[in-house]
Amino acid sequence: MDTAVTIIGLAITLLIGIPLFYMFRSHAANNSKIKAIFARYGNFNFTETDQQNKKVLALDKKNKGFVFIDFNSVPETVHFVNLNDVNSVKTISTTEGNTNTIVKIEFEFQHKQNQKKENVPFYSIENDQIGQVYLYQDQQLSKKWEKLLANAISS
């Protein structure tokens, strides 16, 4: 009786422990990648960061730098924008045909010098594995960061 209970207890522990181990290992690997990417931009100190749905947004308000990292694509995509060169920012949602289905959300940065527009893709339905499950969260996060970026640009 005690042996059976012990074996069942060990089996349950392994069923819970193995996925947790892989989750923590993946999280540690992503954190080391994030630190390495931030190190590329040595004169920027990204103090304000958000992580959600395998996306990382980071802002340096003092030196006016913005980094967006998307781990959903392989290899990860990294976009850096020097906000000193930017006049304005807004989010653009692209819908599919005549429906209200959002297929893409992008940050659009308008540069001061040549009025050139730079788009940074934030959400893409192709990277949403289950199909618009993360859309609402990503819309809220993009609105929040649009305000943060606009405040950083204007200051």
The count of β-strands is: 7
Poorly predicted regions are none
Overall morphology: elongated
Output the CATH class name of the largest domain: Mainly Beta
Order of helices and strands: HEEEEEEEH
**Structural class label:** alpha+beta
What is the quaternary state of this protein?
single chain
Mean pLDDT: 86
CATH topological fold name of the largest domain: PH-domain like
Strand content: 25-35%
* Count of domains: 2
Q: So how many helices?
A: 2
CATH architecture of the largest domain: Roll
N/C terminus separation = 70 Å
Describe this structure as you would to a colleague.
About 40% of the residues lie in helices and about 35% in strands. The chain has helices spanning about 1-40, 135-155; strands spanning about 50, 55-60, 65-70, 75-80, 85-95, 100-110, 115-125. The strands form 2 sheets. The protein has a 4-stranded antiparallel β-sheet with strand order 1-2-3-4, with helices on both faces. The protein has a 3-stranded antiparallel β-sheet with strand order 5-6-7, covered by helices on one side. It folds into 2 domains: about 1-40; about 45-155, PH-domain like, CATH 2.30.29. The longest helix is centred in the first third of the chain and has 39 residues, at about 1-40. It starts with a helix and ends with a helix. It is an alpha+beta fold and about 160 residues long. A hairpin with a 4-residue loop joins strand 2 and strand 3 (about 65-70). The model has no long low-confidence stretch (mean pLDDT about 85).
Per-chain topology:
Layout: H1 2-40, E1 48-52, E2 55-60, E3 65-70, E4 77-82, E5 86-95, E6 102-111, E7 117-124, H2 135-154
Antiparallel strand pairs: 1-2, 2-3, 3-4, 5-6, 6-7
